[in-house]
Amino acid sequence: MLGDISKAGRIFIITGYTDMRKSIDGLMSIVAHTYEMDPYNKSLYLFCGRRSDRIKALLYESDGFVLLYKRLESGKYQWPRNKEEVRTLTRQQLRWLLEGLAIEQPKAIESVKKRIL
């Protein structure tokens, strides 16, 4: 299916600023050369420009790449800008981000890993 992000194994957010004029090849280059990751591994890579009102998502499907682009009519994404790095997001954090919330929610209940007694 075209752009079915639920098929993505992992979700990565590229913090900092990305030139939003870049298309598939330019974003692939950032993933491969800047962060030394494999853009073909069926992960979702998220990018955001300086204005913080638009994002691009790069996803490899079995027959090629899909580039998704979203521009908000009002408001801004709360994109982490601390430094240029790659961070892994959970699906919940992705949902928060797309809803205009920060990916770190201080009052959210964290999931607990099972402990063997």
Q: What this model shows, in words?
A:
- With 117 residues, the protein is an alpha+beta fold.
- The protein has one domain (5-98).
- It is built from two helices and five strands, in the order βαββββα.
- It has helices spanning 24-34, 91-98, and strands at 11-14, 44-48, 54-61, 64-71, 86-89.
- The chain has a five-stranded mixed beta sheet with strand order 4-3-2-1-5.
- β2 (44-48) and β3 (54-61) form a beta hairpin.
- The longest helix has 11 residues, at 24-34.
- The radius of gyration is 15 Å and the shape is globular.
- The mean pLDDT is 88.
Trace the largest sheet across and list its strands: 4-3-2-1-5
Number of strands: 5
Strand content: 15-25%
Sheet of most strands? 5 strands, mixed
Total number of helices: 2
The run of helices and strands is EHEEEEH
Q: What's the overall average pLDDT, rounded?
A: 88
What's the end-to-end separation, in Å?
A: 44 Å
Give the proportion of residues in helices.
Answer: 10-25%
Q: How many domains comprise the coordinates?
A: 1
Shape: globular
Organism: Ohessyouella blattaphilus
InterPro entries: Transposase_IS66_Orf2
Protein name: IS66 family insertion sequence element accessory protein TnpB
Pfam families: TnpB_IS66 (PF05717)
